[in-house]
Amino acid sequence: MKNERLLNTLFFLLSAFFLILSSCGRSEIVYQENNITCYAAAYGQGIYKSDNGGRSWYPMKMNQEDIHLFFKRLFLDSEKETLYVATTGAGLFSIDLNMETLTRIEPYKGQNVRSVAIVKNIDNEKDATIAGALDKGITIVSPEEDIYINDGLIYRDVNTIISSGNDIYAGTVKDLFRRDAANRRWVSSSEGIKNRNIISMAATPDGDMLFAGAGGYLDKKGRFQSIPSIYMSKDKGKSWKGWDDGIPGDTLIYIIAVNPEKPNRIYAGTSRGVYISSDSGDDWGKTDDGLPDDFRVFDIKIKNLDDENALVYAAGSKGLFMAYDIDDPEWVNRDYGLPKTNITGIVIKN
Hints:
By secondary structure, the protein is mostly beta strands. The protein has 2 domains: 1-30; 36-348, Methylamine Dehydrogenase, Chain H (7 Propeller), CATH 2.130.10.10. The protein contains 1 helix and 28 strands. Strands 3-2-1-28 form a 4-stranded antiparallel β-sheet, with no helix packed on it. A hairpin with a 7-residue loop joins strand 20 (253-258) and strand 21 (266-270). The longest helix is centred in the first third of the chain and has 29 residues, at 2-30. The model is unreliable at 9-30 (pLDDT under 50).
């Protein structure tokens, strides 16, 4: 009897030792120091900056009262050192990252702006920044006038815009569109999509695969009807198929992020947390080690490092978290200095 108790005690101690050893090894990797510059948007507050990869944050210097009350998304133009702040009600703003000055873009004042895209060679003419708003549809961003590019855009409640190579795609509340550059108009591009309330999109670096994430299903659903939440296209949006195996039904897909160095690795920020795929979206699994319960994830960004590793940042309803891009990520909190509110957007400066 004594020998049995001794063996059980020894087994318990060895198990605990190896568990602690394993945990310490992973934490050592996750907590490595870095000098990555990040910007984060806080709901009901302003824009915050970190120059150490998110270990600590402080509010940017400019007066931010005009954007405090609103849900904000962030979009970075690296070449121009400009950060665009899209808000749900106050319009569109730009931040000069060198001077840390906030400027309202007047044509969007009071608008619900949901997405911004930096586009190369739009309609085979010029580079441009475009924005999608609830009522305006899609416009070329100008400080003084409205420049609409809405021809063919049947539904002008725009949720998301992305640029992939020479192609531009727009997800709206009722359809997905691709820009026909030759005819300067939008064409419906959603064959195979059952839930056409598209709120997020992403593409692999070569543009060979596109992903579209859906929001709430707005039509009447059949009793036994399956409505996928993520869709994939291999023909530049001409046709799509459901691609959400492993993600529960009725999940909202707020953001899709592809690792540009390992495009088979994809993350989905959802109403049910973070999901990861290591096979280009064929199969998905939830990753929640270190994440809080009921975590709605509004934004995900991936930063590749010099040593071929990558960091993943997830921003959402319960703060900001970071992990290494591995099969079984261990997430750590990264919101020291951020207010205790929804973190609605994050960008990482190159």
